[in-house]
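User: structure tokens for this one?
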Amino acid sequence: MNRRVLLAGGLSLCATSVVVAQSVGRGARIGVLLPGSPEPEYERRLEAFRAALRERGYTEGTNLAFEYRWAHAIADRMPALATGVDQREG
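Assistant:
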């Protein structure tokens, strides 16, 4: 495995992978930048995060929206995804 991909993935997971939260209308929009691809491992972590937000009164689709961006194990894509420049998102 490419050492940079492994390092970027580990650092991203340690940093909870939440990139930005900003107010949108009466709710909040949270950007989530993840180093891999949509997988059960990430989904479990994201669900735990969403559950903690629900406990604090935030409900996805009501007063909260998430924007997910996946690097698909290409560490060089992370900066472009964070700024919204990468057109190969998803």
